[in-house]
Amino acid sequence: MRPQRNISGSTKPLPTTLTWSETLRKRVRTGDWQDQAISTTTKIHDAIEAAEWELAAQLIDYWMEEAKVVYVIYQVWDEGFVTYLRSKGVPEAEIEAEIDRLRTLLAFPDGEPFETTARWEALAVKAGLLANRLRCYETSAEDAAGAMRELQEGWRQLHDRGADFQAGMLTFIARRFGEATIEEAFSSVLEPYLQERYKPFDVREKPYAETLERNLYLSVEAMRGHLVGPGRNGDMEVDEYDDRVVISFDPCGSGGRQQRGDKVEGTPSRAEPPYEFGVTEEEHDWAWNEKGVCYYCSHCCFALEYWPAKHWGHPLRVVDSPLYPDETSGPTPKKCTWTIYKSLEAIPAEAYERIGLTKPPSAPETA
Predict the structure, then answer these.
(1) Residue 237: beta bridge partners?
(2) Residue 363 in domain
């Protein structure tokens, strides 16, 4: 069935809306942090069921924006790691051979080798068609819900292989040049993107308190795009305390899924055959000085803690990443958590010490 056509807008208050954030200079979802922990996927299905089809259509557009954040990051990494390997003198034929190996290893369920652009464009076409069918009442609720499930599955397949591809490239770098070289690779590949995405958190330019909402929103938005949670919908947990907000993923849809294994496709941990993607065997500042951190997950330490703390004097988010294999296996594997402190003073000294730094004795809000 389809709802009665409504040309002029909803006749009742909507549980979720989209608005423009002047702070972020982008479209955002409304709602408190508990509501933000609910995936946009879930919100779309709720809107379809509630016969709010224009809202569902707009949320589908926004769902693609969330996915786009991750897609573009992985595109930057794809190009960056190849450029980095060339700068290290790796022959073009060797680079291409490894890329081909990974694309075959990470083939889609239909047997096609992993690639990105064509699948992403096909996903965009399906999302646009579904949104337009909803807003023009040219579908049924059952068909719309089914099409949304297909969208989610299409993005899951593309997303998960994109994350795995990065783990494979990092493993290639580590085995070619040594594990410590990952820090250099991250510096080369991630720094331009970090400057663009995280420069607003530099307290020399803006007080820490004024960046808190931005930090929290970017966190939940990105992890919805990563399809976190047991149902791979993008649902997460948010717990707020006097001094901090803790966001939990069970599992994280990228590194956490890699280490636990893929329950959807029935494939093993990416640290095990046939993947054998690396985890830290030594202690490094850029990987929390822990052994058993998957190379992919170590980018969270580098990008969210180590690099900003070195450049700006404080970590953005304090991450507790489960270690392979003890914390990623068994009946109750550990959740990954991100802690965002509400002030510089609240960030504990241990958060600095575990990345080889010392907390400033008196961290000012601005320089």
Answers:
(1) 248
(2) no
pLDDT at 14: 85
Domain count, the chain: 1
- Exposure string of 57-76, with b = 16+ CB inside 10 Å and e = fewer, is bbbbebbbebbebbbebbee
Q: Is residue 149 domain-resident?
A: yes
**b/e map 146-165, b = 16+ CB within 10 Å:** ebbeebbebbbbbbbbbbbb
Between the alpha carbon of residue 198 and those of residues 70, 138, 193, 194, the distances in Å are: 15, 42, 8, 5
Q: The tokens of 275 are what?
A: 């993947």
Q: How is 43-103 classified by DSSP, letter by letter?
A: HHHHHHHTT-HHHHHHHHHHHHHHHHHHHHHHHHHHHHHHHHHHHTT--HHHHHHHHHHHH
Mean pLDDT split into 10-residue runs, the chain, 367 residues: 73 86 94 97 97 96 97 96 98 98 98 98 98 96 98 98 98 98 97 86 91 96 97 97 98 97 97 98 98 98 96 95 97 97 97 96 53
Is there a contact between 126 and 151 (Cβ–Cβ < 8 Å)? yes
334 is a domain residue = yes
pTM metric for this prediction = 0.95
Residue 218 lies in a domain: yes
Total residues found in the chain within this entry: 367
Q: Which residues form the domain of 152?
A: 19-353
